[in-house]
TrEMBL record:
It comes from Peptoniphilus lacrimalis 315-B. One of its GO terms (molecular function) is identical protein binding. Belongs to the phosphofructokinase type A (PFKA) family. This is 6-phosphofructokinase. Pfam families: PFK (PF00365).
């Protein structure tokens, strides 16, 4: 078969190991593998290149995606969408593997509904797809943030301050939750849980009164302005409060071991399913096993936000 792969939306560490796994396992099983540069926009523009084993040499350790990525408003318009389908026909693509987050996989579903054979693989630092325990890139993002939080704590403790750190995640609080727990944050603000700033302030004052010299708060980007929250927190506690916005640092860096292995497993599984003539699936992971779901079903699954982890964080971050 002729298999094409594209990376779409926000980049995530682990996309390169994923492409590598798809290319090398695809060729091993006798397929031709093509890369589409710059995501759906590149598909519309016909940016299709044939890939071989050497094309993916020396990429497993690199962040980002060597194919490039983009957000494509044109793909949502009928004219652009029709051009994308026409390019797939011109290059005789039998199945398209889409690697990205929520919006990218919805684009794959749109293609599937138009009669195109597709496979979806979740790659996003946000970890906001409920059908899979983890998305490619999430763990690397956490590693980056944990290192950052440790550095922030050093300077915060030196000055006896508080620091509000805004993290990504869109409407999902997983980045704040996991990074907050692993980084030892005193509080997190996430869309899945109501915020009681008076309770947060009370906790900070109790800590200050017993000699605590730092207070780290992670705020998900969906929770409004970190500067407004910091001002309110400072006025309630009297603690000098600064704001840190890591921004796109969260997306960069060499993928961690977990993401390299997860990407390799998911890419290989996609080829295995194609070998069996199984299409229109989303690859995911549940309880350390690689699983598949029908693409049209994955957007209706309930949030997997872990209130158990949130409870642990609240209890041990005194």
């Amino acid at each position: 078969m002729n298999i094409a792969i594209l990376t779409s939306g926000g980049d995530a560490p682990g996309m390169n190991p994923l492409i590598r796994a798809v290319v090398r396992s695809g060729i091993y099983y006798g397929h031709k593998v093509y890369g589409i540069e710059s995501g759906y926009q590149g598909l519309i523009e016909g940016k299709v290149i044939e890939l071989n084993e050497s094309s993916v040499g020396d990429v497993i350790q690199k962040g980002g995606t060597f194919l490039g990525t983009s957000r494509s408003p044109s793909f949502q318009e009928q004219d652009g969408f029709n051009k994308a389908i026409n390019v797939l026909d011109i290059f005789n693509i039998d199945v398209l593997i889409v690697c990205g987050g929520d919006g990218s996989l919805k684009g794959a579903l749109k293609l599937k509904n138009a009669g195109i054979k597709v496979m979806g693989i979740p790659a996003s630092i946000d970890n906001d797809l409920a059908y899979t325990d983890y998305t490619i890139g999430f763990m690397t993002c956490l590693e980056t943030l944990c290192g950052l939080i440790s550095k922030i704590r050093d300077t915060t403790e030196s000055h006896g301050r508080a620091n509000v750190v805004e993290v990504m995640g869109r409407n999902c609080g997983d980045i704040a939750l996991y990074a907050g727990l692993a980084g030892g944050a005193e509080n997190i603000l996430v869309p899945e849980c109501p915020t009681d700033i008076d309770e947060i302030a009370k906790k900070a004052i109790l800590g200050k009164n017993r000699g605590k010299r730092h207070h780290i708060i992670l705020i998900s980007e969906a929770m409004g302005s970190p500067y407004e929250f910091a001002d309110k927190f400072q006025s309630l506690t009297g603690i000098d409060t600064k704001v840190t916005i890591p921004g796109y640092i969260q997306r960069g860096g060499s993928p961690c071991v977990f993401d390299r292995i997860l990407a390799s497993q998911m890419g290989f599984r996609a080829i295995e399913e194609i070998n069996k003539n199984n299409f229109n699936l989303a690859i995911g992971t549940r309880k350390e096993s690689i699983i598949t779901r029908n693409l049209e079903e994955i957007f209706s699954e309930e949030s997997k936000f872990s209130y158990n982890l949130l409870n642990i964080l609240k209890i041990i971050s005194i």
